[in-house]
Amino acid sequence: MRMKMKKKNETQSNRKLCNMKQLLFITPNRMLSLPLLLLVFSIPCLPPCVSTTTSVGHFQVNQRIRKTNQAVLLPTNNNMNPSEVETLFKIMESMSSDHAWRISFPNPCNSASSWPGIECRPGLNDKLLHVSRLDFGSPPNPSCKSTATFPSLVFTLPYLTSLFFFHCFTQIKTNISFPLLPHISSNSSSSLQQLSLISNPALVGPIPPHISSLHSLRILTLSQNRLSGKIPVQLFLLNSLVHLDLSYNVLTGPIPPQVGSLRNLVGLDLSYNSLNGSIPETIGHLGLLQKFDLSSNFLVGNIPDSIQNLISLVFMALSSNKLGGKFPQGLEKLQSLQYFIMDDNPMFIPLPEVFGKLMKLEELRIANSGYSGIIPPSFSHLTNLSTLSLQNNRLTGEIPVGFGSLCHIYHLNLSRNMLAGIVPFNSTFLKRLGRNLDLSGNPGLCLSPSEAYGVKIGVSLCGSNRTASTIQPFHKSEAAPSVLCKSFFLLCSILGTILLPHFSNFHLVVPVIFPFLTSFD
Hints:
- By secondary structure, this protein is of the alpha/beta class.
- Helices cover 17% and strands 19% of the residues.
- The protein has helices at residues 2-21, 34-40, 67-73, 82-95, 101-104, 427-433, 481-499, 510-518, and strands spanning 53-56, 59-62, 118-122, 129-136, 162-166, 194-198, 204-205, 219-221, 226-230, 243-245, 250-254, 267-269, 274-278, 291-293, 298-301, 315-317, 322-323, 339-341, 363-365, 372-374, 387-389, 394-397, 411-413, 418-422, 437-438, 444-447, 460-461.
- The strands form four sheets. Strands 3-4-5-6-8-10-12-14-16-18-19-21-23-25 form a 14-stranded mixed sheet, with helices on both faces. A six-stranded parallel sheet has the order 7-9-11-13-15-17, with no helix packed on it. It has a five-stranded parallel sheet with strand order 20-22-24-26-27, with no helix packed on it.
- Strand 3 (118-122) and strand 4 (129-136) form a beta hairpin.
- It is elongated.
């Protein structure tokens, strides 16, 4: 009896814990775990009872509300609006052939027989159940047919809050469309808060301006598709947006200055497109922004000075553009910045000292950008630094001595510059970084022989033409044997000349010399 009670209590405790973890809520007092932020909006629905709640600055997002949690909320009659059920069946039949949906799941929201990839909730003003979430493409959710095209009818489901399509549209070209039925008002799908279409190679065409009708939208992820054309200015009427990801498409044109109207935005990712023009000054209006990624576009001009207003910024990536000229004023105000990635831009200016004032920096990547001058000694103050990439620039002078004290660094690349002097790293530092240290392509650098360790760092030993990459650590038994042997045999020759006339038999000489030979084995 006690065992049964104990097992029952454990089950109830686990259920409560699972339910608590899987609530979707927003709170202004949580700090960011950035690497999880980048994942949280791109991962489709997880299996029931598996919850991954992540903090994102001013909000938290849960990836799944447990099915058992719904059972507590659902009315006992399990009724649905007939027109909504019919719409749902049409959507499912056009998207997936996993089941004969009408036969296998005649009551989609019935807690005892609901199908995978669907969540339901009761209406506020009726006793009916309504579809609140649909997931397609990622197990255990319904797979997508090879002939699937975008089902515009999803925007007619009035209680739908979350919609996911992952790797669904792969063969037949399709585009994001809205129904053109006369009874569909501009308020349709106004309850939709999250729309994610990820990794759909056959999803083409422009982002429709009518997307602005989804005025409750908080998370919009349209990544890894083939969307083209300009970013519609109507998109920036969605002033509830917290996360906007249009990365890995073929979007063109400038970034509209209206982007500054998204005052609640925490994450903005427009990377890997073909956007041109300059970064708009209005970007500085996004005071809550924590992730800012414009990598791999064709942007030109300077980074605007208004960037200094983004005091919550944690991650900034501007790599592989055509940005140049001066750095923005007030960059030292970005004291929350942990990742600054700006490789492959034609900057051609002295390496800015201001980076040495960003004390939370963990990764600084500014390779292949024409920076000149010395590496500022203030870089040695970046005690949280784990990655520093300055390769393929025009840097001169010596490596700052303080770099050897950066205890968290694991990747240091200073190759292909014009650095000179003795490498200020001891053997412990060299061993810790191993192949993650690259100093090659700096003919003026050399490594002290006393610190040589058998790793490839691409520099010569001081006073030698040999490169440090060929030097192996000495073992006691291997310590310069050739020099000792040569000296010993010279001594043997001299002793032989002196002693040989005094021995009548040559074999008597051997026991005299043999102990010396064996001592050097």
